[in-house]
Amino acid sequence: MVLLLLLLLLFSFIMYCYIQDTKKKIGKRIIRYLLVSSILQIIWTTAYMLSEYLPKFTISGIVYIIAFSITGLAMFKGLTKLGYLIFTNIVISPILSLIWIRIGDATFVSCTMNSLRAVFIPIAIIVINGSCQISLFLFIKLQNWLSLGKQKEKQPLKKTVIKYIKVLCFQLLLSMVLEVILISNNMFLSCLPIVFFLGAIFIFRKKISVSYIFWIISWLFIDNTAIFLGGKSISSFHMLVRQQLETNCMIGFPIYHILLTIYFKLKGNKK
Fold first, then answer.
1. What does each C-alpha distance from 82 to 76, 85, 185, 215 come to in angstroms?
2. CB–CB of 185/241 below 8 Å?
3. Looking at residue 134, what is its pLDDT?
4. Where are the domains of the chain?
5. How far is C-alpha 33 from the chain's CA centre?
6. Among 91, 97, 182, 250, which is least packed by CB within 10 angstroms?
7. What is the mean pLDDT of residues 222-241?
C-alpha cells in the first residue's frame, strides 16, 4: 500500500509539472531531470544495499565511486539538479531498498536481513545517500566558485611534475611520521605533533600551488596504505585508540585542505 502511494505521488508530481507548462518545454525538461535522477538513485541504492549484504568495501565501494562520478558529471552537465535528486531519493530509494531486501534475502542466504534492521534501512538509505548527494552538490559549487576569475598559467611539464612529486613526498613523510607517533597509543602525545603537521601543511601549500583535490586524493591513498601496512603489527588491545586517531586524521586533514583552499581564495580576492 505504501509503495503504491509513493508511486502515485511520483506520477502525480510529473503530471502536475507537465500540465502547468503551456509550451511543454519546461515540462520536458522536468521529466528529463526526473528520469536522470531516478536512474541515478538506482545506482546509489544498489551501492548502499551491496554494502549491507556484502560488507567488504571492494564491490560496494566501486559502485559508490561510479555513483559519485556519474552524478557529478550529470550535475556538471546540467542533466539533473539537487532538488530532483532529493525528491527521487525520498520517493524511489525506499521502494528499491524494500525490493532489494526481498530479492537479497533469497539470493544472499548467509546474509539474511533481520526484521528490525530491514525496518530502518529505507530511512537510513535516504539519509546516507542524500547526505552524499548534497555533499557532492556543495563540492561542485565550491569548485565553480574557486574557478571564478582564475587564470590558468601554463608551466613547463618538468616543473609541474616536480611540484606533484614534492607533494607526494611530503604526504608520504607526513603519513610515516604519523604512524610512528600513533604507536604510542596516547591521545595527548599524538595530538601535539598533529598541530605541528597542520602548520607545516599550511606553509607547504602556501609555497607550492597544487590543486586541493590532488592533496586530498593523495593523502587518502597514502594514509590508507600506511594504515593497512602498519595495522598488521598492532595488537587488538591498542587497536581501538589507534583507529580513533587514524580516523580523525584521515577525515580531518581533507577538511583542513578544503578550509585552506577557501582561505587562500578569499585572501586572493581581497588582493
1. 11, 5, 42, 27
2. yes
3. 92
4. 2-147, 157-270
5. 22
6. 250
7. 58
Residue 62: phi, psi to the nearest 5?
A: -65, -45
Write down the residue that cell numbers 606533484 correspond to. Answer: 164
H helical segments located in 77-110: 82-107
Q: Over 50: is that where the pLDDT of 198 sits?
A: yes
**Cα–Cα distance measured from residue 37 to residue 250, given in angstroms and rounded to the nearest whole number:** 31
**φ, ψ at 114 (rounded to 5°):** -75, 160
- Secondary structure (3-state) at 216: helix
Q: Which of 216, 195, 194 is nearest to 205 (CA)?
A: 216
CB within 8 A of 103, min separation 6: which ones?
Answer: none
Torsion of CA 160, 163, 165, 167, to 10 degrees: -140
In whole angstroms, give the CA distance from residue 19 to residue 11: 12
- Residue 249: predicted pLDDT: 73
pLDDT at 80 over 70: yes
**Of 10, 3, 6, 36, the residue nearest 102 (C-alpha):** 3
Residue-averaged pLDDT of the chain: 76
pLDDT-based confidence at 131, cuts 50/70/90?
Answer: very high
